[in-house]
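Model it.
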Amino acid sequence: MLQNLPALITLLVYSAVLFGVGLWAAQRAKSQEDFLLGGRSLGPWVAGLAYAASSSSAWVLLGFSGFVYIAGPSALWMVPGIIAGYAAVWLWAGGTLQGASRDEDQLTLTEFMTQHAHPGSARLIRIVASVLIAICFSFYVAGQFQGAGTAINDLFQTGFVPGVVIGALVILVYVFLGGFLAVSLTDTIQGLLMAFVAVLLPALAFLEAGGVAGLSQALAEAPEGYGSVFGNRAGWAATGFVLGLSATGFGALGQPHLVAWIMATRDTSARVKGAIVAMSWAGLVFAGMAVLGLSGRALLGGDAAPESVFFTLAEDLLPSVFAGIVAAATLSAIMSTVDSQLLVAGGAVSHDLGLGKALGGREVLVSRLAIVGVCIAAVLLTLLAPSSIFQRILFAWVALGAAFGPIVVARTLGFKPRGRTVLAGMVTGFGLAVAYEVGWIGAGPGAMWKTIAPWIGAGFVMFLVAATRKTRATGELGVGEGR
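Modeled.
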């Protein structure tokens, strides 16, 4: 570890700043609303940068750059869908989410989904939603911890297991202390740092690779199909590949940790301006990682480990001090997602399940204990069930998006889904996502159905449940008996 002392010092100073923010924010987290939504007081820059950093985690710096490195230009079809997903959350569904949160005093996405459900059905929905959140976030957070272990081990040769534990402890401490306010402020810092590195490192790699001429030569020398925008696919396979990859971005509509940023913005103006900030950030960072992946192909050939390309190029092209900044940026990408997810998991246990009130109004304490529990579970999953960062996070993203996203869409379209309709949609969307992930159902041409079919299935089942209750005359989806 001492062989890279400048990088270590840089990382320690950065971590100290995060701890300081957590301690400062801890003095202001007096209520459950403060702890889970920061008092609904976020301005556009904080909300936009924090949202972007939370949504674009280690899978962007490590996973997406590695995906471009191994797949070529065809991987770029994911980017338009990601940015469109940002727009859908902030500008389309955002008004409904923000309004319901304020008017109905809702603190979580689960409360939003159960607004029109009978109390008995709402209780069941909260239980099922909390279980789904715990399952998906365990995979999601495990992917982030895997990135942390890779980052710390590559820079300091600590070994993968100590790297995972160190990264988890750093994240846990400041989330445990300050809640949403700490998360929003640190995510803003992390988002700026990630953007800086997403410009610096790709620019250096691009120049080192020989610019446009160097990249063109690398594409020409790569295996057949690598340089194709469809990845050597044609016909329905190409169409399915493009649709499936682009559709990934709309999973943002069902991510509880991202919806929280919309609920936390202070007003409509802040939300609209925050959308511009978030989408601009996404365009910059994804473009940078695309350039890095292609430049990595030119510089490293095709034999490098995809998710190590980011660190390999950083080590080759940057001095030790800047390598520390790169490590901090990577941990930022990880922290900025994990902290939000841990808060949502804590809110699901304390607020949605009502355990905080059941234990004498100790909502914040219960949230913090739940955060510790999810963190420990994710560390164990990271160490005991190895997988790629990209695939682990993609599954969690698709599963959560399919479980909750169709309900958000229905509410935004003006429908009022009742309990059984919501429950049917959640279970169907999640179940189909799992079925495609484990291979029980074929993914179709270009693997398109893996990201699209769970949404279609959930929406269709919601419609069937609503239709059987014969409520179309009321103009409400699934009203019926109020369950």
